[in-house]
Amino acid sequence: MIMDSKQKLIEAKTLRQFLTRLFKKAGMLQSHALQVAEGLVATSLRGVDSHGIRLAPHYVKEVVAGRINPRPSFAFHKNAPGAGIVDADDSLGIPAGIFAIDQCMKLSKKTGIAAVAVKNSSHFGAAALYALRAARKGYLAFAFTHTESLVVPFGAKRPVLGTNPICIAAPCAGEDPVCIDMSTTNVTWNKLQMLKAAKATIPAGWALDKEGRVTTDYRAAEFLTPIAGYKGYGLGLMVEILSGVLAGGKLGPELTPMSPINSKKRELGHFFMIIDIAAFDSLSRFKRRMKSLATLLRSQRPAQGVRNVFVAGDPEKIMYRKRSKAGILVDASLIEEFNNLSKQFGIASI
What we know:
Layout: E1 7-10, H1 12-25, H2 30-45, H3 56-65, E2 75-80, E3 83-87, H4 93-111, E4 113-121, H5 128-135, E5 139-145, E6 166-172, E7 175-182, H6 189-197, E8 207-208, E9 214-215, E10 223-224, H7 230-245, E11 268-276, H8 283-298, H9 314-326, E12 328-331, H10 332-345
Parallel strand pairs: 3-4
Antiparallel strand pairs: 1-12, 2-3, 4-11, 5-6, 5-11, 6-7, 8-9, 8-10
Helix pairs in contact: 1-2, 4-5
């Protein structure tokens, strides 16, 4: 592993404990502080750094600014045997998402298929957190969320939809669930911010400038483009329908942006769906068939220049194993932010 002198390897356990203390000191409920810390660290372990521990300072600042309710009371309205809506009471998205997917699993045991929408929430991190949580318990799980207007519709010049990710996770014999977690854009907004911070050239087709023109200049990149043109635009619209329209919340242009941080509530919506596999087939048979499918895909002959054919989620599984042993590589700038927050809240530094 090549490590810059300004970077530091930190064990997941150490990060988890530090972030839990930090979130609790910021005023969050103990259970929610632990959920958010575990969620961010788990995401970084999987190599999804754009949605991992780097978000912790942002979340704390949102609590301090009054945007986030650190001690919310979730209200679950069961409107049908297999459907309901969660009012997240302006919570951070991770505790709200966990509450919603757990409610969804409970409903599905009686109905076979269940869906739960969430309103009045905030950024919920990586969608895989929720789909994997359910898939590890033997369910086929889906997770969606909308975000503020960052994506220009196909053929347009100004943004309307968000990055609007799609996630599905399926149990698989002998390994962690197969998990597809992707934005409906060529790059996530958080990853673009990482590229901009690094003053890196933006790959062609990923971003547009303020006039809606394709740009590779990190200084000019303002908006995102949908994957596969009009097809990605359609997928993003689907997520907006589920997470915004159906949940009864605000829509793209009405949503409060993630930055700059202020006291204005974000009022984001999410959508979760669970299929109880046992309602269709035995779980053990399903997992064996998933393993057969994954093996078939991985056994394909690689194209020229390609070393391995992967199944969705394979790179994250590989990174999880590496980082669980070696630790998570943390940039000096993030360590400095952690240390400043330590002083602000009177806790031991990382």
